[in-house]
Every structure is written in structure tokens, then in C-alpha cells.
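Students often ask why inverse folding is considered easier than folding. One informal answer: many sequences map to the same fold, so there is more than one right answer. In these notes we will look at a single instance of the problem. The structure comes first.
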């Protein structure tokens, strides 16, 4: 009798564990494309689908800037808001769900999200942001005449001005290092452009491409031995690992320059690049034109309007950078 009770107990425990595992698996699959916000507003002016490729500080701010700008313009919006969590397999399934939700417009944040939306959505206007090369990414026919149903805001910034400012602080820099995602068009274009600019300035570029985020710690450790400073691109995967990158650089007493401010907030030294909150607000202003009747195919792609010089105070002190230096007099200091 005791043996039977033990056997029954064991079977029940096993069944419970199996049910629990199945439940967790289902939840994990569901969370791969998590719905951050699904605001239900009675009599809303519009329904907008927001698709963010992954959760990282710059893309988060592009989302917040968009939503806040809509509110500033007194436009009531019901949002269907999803993150693809960096899962390429979701870049077409998520926009398909947006279509089934009968949204009036899709706001796609980052190149993979925008590409996925364009591939499957043909009759709903798409506004993108955080895309460096919309033509090369196949999103538009040209900057001036996008064609089809897609336009947006490019975050391309000529790196030369930022590099020149950086060299005033670190004039002995002979080699920059760069990490980039080998599968992101956005990053490949930036690396090519950066190398051209540095060649003209007689500065070498050491490049390491990484296929996934798990390779970044080893890659930045290797790169730190080959360069005098790091140039950080607007690369989604690498930006997501900015705290790890920053920590390794500081261990090697290496300064860093970022093409966008989000990575400075996460530990890199300085940037005079994209303010993604303002970038998202600019995308909202473009979206408003479309929602009020302008044809998206006739609206040229816009370039980022607002760049802000920022310096990470903690990193600057660790590198013995004088925050009172004339070069940094107009910089915003991030505590």
C-alpha cells in the first residue's frame, strides 16, 4: 500500500511538472513578441501599430518620442504596440497581426522591423525611424521619391564632424575600433562610410563583425588590444551590449565615441549624434501629415534634425577627461 501511494505521488508530481513546463514554454513563445501597450480609447482619432525591433535604450526613446509628440498635437491614438525582441522570424508575422488589427498606420522602429513590415504590408502607410540607409535596405526607391507606402526618418549622420571633435581631446588616436552586426544592413553601410572618412584622415580602422550578441564580450576584448579608441555605430545589437563594451574599454583605459546618445547613457564616453527621443518625435510629425491625408509615396525621407553633444560623467572621470575643457563646454553631462 505504501509503495502504491509513493508511485501515485510520483506520477502526480511528474504530471504537474509536465503541465508546468508546457505552460512556461507557451508563455515564452508568446513573450517573443510581447505586447507592451494596447491602449483602448473610445472614439480615438486613429489606431497606430508600433513595431520595435528590440528593447534597447535608443529604440525605446524613439517610441516614447513618437507617442509624446502625438499627445502634444492633441491626437488621440489607440496603440497596438509590440516588440520583436530582436527575433528576425517575427519581422513579418508581427506586421501581419497589425493588418488584422485594422491599423491606420504602422510605425516601424529600426531597419529589420521596417523591412519586415514593407515585405508584408501593401495597403497601410508605414513610417520608419532608426534606419540609416533606407534605399540600400530596400525600403524606398529614393530619398526624394519613396514610392509605394513607406517613408520615414533616417538616422544617418556624417561621422567626420564627431571624429574631428573627438580628436581635439585625443589627438594621438591612430586607430579606431568598431564592432558591428554582420547581418544588419544598417551597420554594414555605416562601417563602409566610417572607413572612407578615416582613410581620408589617415586613421586606421580595426573592424570586428559579430553574428550574435553572445560574441560581443570576446570581440570587444580582442578589439581593445588593437585600437586607441572605439567608434560605436547606431547598431541595435551592439548598442544593447553597451554596458559590457564600456566596462571592457575602461579596463583597458580606452575612450569611446558613439554615433548616438543612448550608448553614452549606458557607459560610453561621448556622442554628438542622434537624440532618439527627438528622432521619434520627428517621425510622429511625418505620420501626422499622412494621417491627415497626404500620400506617403510623395513625402520624401527626412534626415535626423536634432543632434546633441553628450558626455558620460562617470566614464570621463575614469579616463581623467577634464569636463571643463573648452571642447566640452556646450556638452550635456550625463550623471
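Output (designed amino acids):
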Amino acid at each position: 500500500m505504501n509503495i502504491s501511494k509513493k508511485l501515485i505521488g510520483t506520477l502526480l508530481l511528474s504530471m504537474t511538472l509536465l503541465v508546468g513546463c508546457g505552460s512556461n514554454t507557451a508563455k515564452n513563445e508568446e513573450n517573443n513578441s510581447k505586447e507592451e501597450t494596447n491602449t483602448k480609447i473610445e472614439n480615438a482619432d486613429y489606431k497606430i501599430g508600433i513595431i520595435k525591433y528590440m528593447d534597447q535604450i535608443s529604440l525605446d526613446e524613439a517610441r516614447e518620442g513618437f507617442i509624446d509628440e502625438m499627445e502634444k498635437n492633441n491626437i488621440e491614438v489607440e496603440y497596438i504596440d509590440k516588440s520583436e525582441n530582436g527575433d528576425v522570424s517575427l519581422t513579418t508575422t508581427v506586421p501581419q497581426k497589425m493588418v488584422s488589427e485594422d491599423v491606420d498606420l504602422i510605425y516601424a522602429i529600426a531597419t529589420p522591423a521596417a523591412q519586415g513590415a514593407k515585405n508584408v504590408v501593401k495597403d497601410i502607410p508605414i513610417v520608419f525611424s532608426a534606419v540609416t540607409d533606407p534605399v540600400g535596405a530596400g525600403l524606398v526607391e529614393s530619398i526624394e521619391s519613396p514610392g509605394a507606402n513607406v517613408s520615414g526618418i533616417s538616422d544617418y549622420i556624417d561621422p567626420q564632424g564627431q571624429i574631428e571633435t573627438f580628436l581635439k581631446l585625443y589627438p594621438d588616436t591612430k586607430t579606431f575600433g568598431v564592432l558591428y552586426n554582420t547581418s544588419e544592413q544598417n551597420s554594414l553601410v555605416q562601417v563602409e562610410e566610417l572607413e572612407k572618412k578615416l582613410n581620408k584622415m589617415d586613421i586606421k580602422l580595426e573592424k570586428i563583425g559579430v553574428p550574435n550578441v553572445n560574441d560581443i564580450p570576446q570581440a570587444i576584448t580582442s578589439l581593445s588590444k588593437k585600437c586607441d579608441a572605439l567608434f560605436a555605430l547606431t547598431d541595435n545589437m551592439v548598442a544593447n551590449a553597451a554596458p559590457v563594451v564600456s566596462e571592457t574599454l575602461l579596463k583597458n583605459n580606452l575612450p569611446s565615441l558613439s554615433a548616438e546618445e543612448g550608448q553614452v547613457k549606458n557607459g560610453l564616453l561621448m556622442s554628438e549624434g542622434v537624440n532618439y527621443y527627438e528622432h521619434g518625435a520627428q517621425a510622429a510629425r511625418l505620420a501626422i501629415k499622412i494621417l491627415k491625408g497626404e500620400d506617403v509615396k510623395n513625402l520624401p525621407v527626412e534626415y535626423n534634425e536634432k543632434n546633441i553633444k553628450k558626455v558620460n560623467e562617470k566614464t570621463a572621470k575614469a579616463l581623467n577627461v577634464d569636463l571643463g575643457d573648452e571642447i566640452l563646454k556646450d556638452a550635456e553631462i550625463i550623471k
